[in-house]
Amino acid sequence: MRDEEPPLTANSAKADKRIWPFRVSVPREVAMLHADSLTGLTVVFDLDGTLVDTAPDLIRALNATLAGEGLPEISRGKVHHLVGHGARALLQKGIANCGVSLTDSRLDSLTENFIAHYRQDIAGESRLFPGALETLHSLRAAGARISICTNKRTFLALELLGALGIRELFDSVIGPDHTRERKPSPLHFIAAVEEAGGHPQSAVMFGDSEPDLRSARAAKAPVALVNFGYGGDVQALGPDAIVRHFSEIPALTYEFWLRIRRM
């Protein structure tokens, strides 16, 4: 990185004029990362659909809320396309799927009902995607800071991570209630990086949807999308890389870091 380039901060999302100009091609196996090989880098993850398959518990809470309104259940196959913009948006889309519209005040009330149902068993069926735990440990052992940037409310994200026994693996967890603007705004990504003690110019993003890509890319950070999440056809979004399994992430992260340092 050139010393004359000013740091990008939450108060100056457009300070860095760099452009991420390339697509990467890396070995599709776990990298043998050494201690300190990622020191200085912050790795940011989306939560739902990227790190954790939360769809079963989200659909349980959604259907419990719909049942309370006398509305039909939504199948698990449909809920994947509703996730990613927070509880209120999930509920709003679920109700619209039933052909019903509600006032804002009623939707707000039902959102709280949804959250209450969700918290009753927040990780009942939610599971880390295969290889996620090993990858998180590998990144931390290599010196990276790790953050979560999610449109799930922060306290819900913390409860989920605690229930899964992985809260201590993250240097920061930032939901939309802890930033001025949520994803796809770059301010959300920047807040997640800075809260972890990192610098946005030395950070990468792993997500599964367009809001993840747009948030990181607007902050001039490299971004990779997993193809097993809830974001649909991620190839069409044009990420810097596509991840098919978590075992690919250490090598990809190291490649991103090397290229960041050359800029």
Provide a descriptive summary of the structure in words.
α6 links the parallel β4 and β5. This protein folds into 2 domains: 42-53 and 126-262, Rossmann fold (3-Layer(aba) Sandwich), CATH 3.40.50.1000; 55-120, Orthogonal Bundle (DNA polymerase, domain 1), CATH 1.10.150. The strands form 2 sheets. The chain has a 6-stranded parallel beta sheet, with helices on both faces. It has helices at residues 55-68, 76-79, 87-97, 104-120, 132-141, 154-164, 186-195, 210-218, 249-262; strands at 42-45, 52-53, 127-128, 145-149, 172-174, 203-207, 223-226, 241-243. Mean pLDDT is 86; it is low at 1-31. It is of the alpha/beta class and 263 residues long.
Distance between the termini: 5 Å
The total of helices stands at 9
How many β-strand runs? 8
- Output the CATH class name of the largest domain: Alpha Beta
**Beta-strand proportion:** 5-15%
- The structure class reads alpha/beta
What do the pLDDT scores average to? 86
Order of helices and strands: EEHHHHEHEHEHEHEEH
Approximately how much helix is present in the residues?
A: 25-40%
Q: What is the radius of gyration computed over CA atoms, rounded to a whole number of angstroms? A: 18 Å
Spatial strand sequence of the major β-sheet: 5-4-1-6-7-8
Provide the CATH architecture of the largest domain. 3-Layer(aba) Sandwich
CATH homology group of the largest domain: HAD superfamily/HAD-like
* Low-confidence residue ranges: 1-31
As for the number of domains, it is 2
* Biggest β-sheet strands, sense, barrel: 6 strands, parallel
